[in-house]
Structure formats: structure tokens, C-alpha cells
Amino acid sequence: MDSSERSKSGEGGERSLSGPRRRAREIALQVLHQIDAGGEPRLDAAQAIARYFDHFGAGAEAADEEGGADSLLDSGGRPARIDRPFLEELVRGVSARRDELDEILANLSRNWRLERIALVERNVIRLALYELKYVEPVPVNVVLNEAVELAKRYGTAEGAAFVNGLLDRAVGELRR
Fold this sequence. Notes:
This protein is 61% helix and 7% strand. By secondary structure, the chain is mostly helical. The protein folds into two domains: 18-95, no CATH class; 97-176, N-utilizing Substance Protein B Homolog, Chain A.
């Protein structure tokens, strides 16, 4: 992805979660949260994604014929483009590798049991770890920045600093 594509897709440093990939990460976080908070029986990734779009995406149409992004309304009533294939890759990937990602998270958070990490921060970190390990074309700094922005927007007051510190450690550990 060149810099113009990165800018169009929200990877260019914008502060709001408005680009298609940023929206995909945001929705992936919401879907993963629903999977965790939904109780038993646990929804699988496909069911959770379908439930999200059934509930929030009624009437979603293709917004970008070239990229295949879906359209939902943003807070201003304007179509918000979503990189749906990226969203599905994130949710399916994190769900399929949850145990592995949780093991990495448990090893990184030396003084915290996994259950003590707030659900939002836990899912933000899972998403970022999945991207760092399995999504090739995404630069490390983009993954870290996106995770911190999600934690600021949806997490606890201290969540962004916790996510940043843990993922900084993860980058060092994963590169060994």
C-alpha cells in the first residue's frame, strides 16, 4: 500500500477513526467484545459479524465499487466506509487464534492475570497482537497507534497507557 492509499484508508495519522481500515478495527473490537460478553453459548466469528451488520448495518450498501467497502452511517449521518474483508480477517483471525494470543498476552502482562485486564483493553491487545503476527502489510507503528486510539476511545482512563506499554513490550518480544 503506498502513502496515498494509506492516507485514503485512514492509515496516514488522522486522529479520528474514520478511514475504512480504522472503522474495520473499531467494528472488529465491538464484535470481539460482543463475543466475549455474550456469555454461553459463545458466538462464532461469522455469527457475530452477521449479528453486528444485521443490527447496525441494515441497508448497508457497497460504498466503494473498487474496494468493496460497505457503508454505514457515521455519527454525522454520512456514509462511513468499512474495509469489510479486513474486518472479517481480524475477527476470524483473533477468534481462531484466541488461545495463542491470550498466552502471549499473559506472558507480556507479568503482574496481571488475564481476567484482571479490562475486556476492552484485552480485545484491543488481541487485535494488535494478531495484526503484528499475521497481517503483513501493516507497519508496526500503525498497529500500535491504532490500538492506542481504540483504547483511548473505548477503554478505561488508564487503558491507553497500559495498551501502549504492553504492545511496546510485545514488539520487542515478537521480533526475537
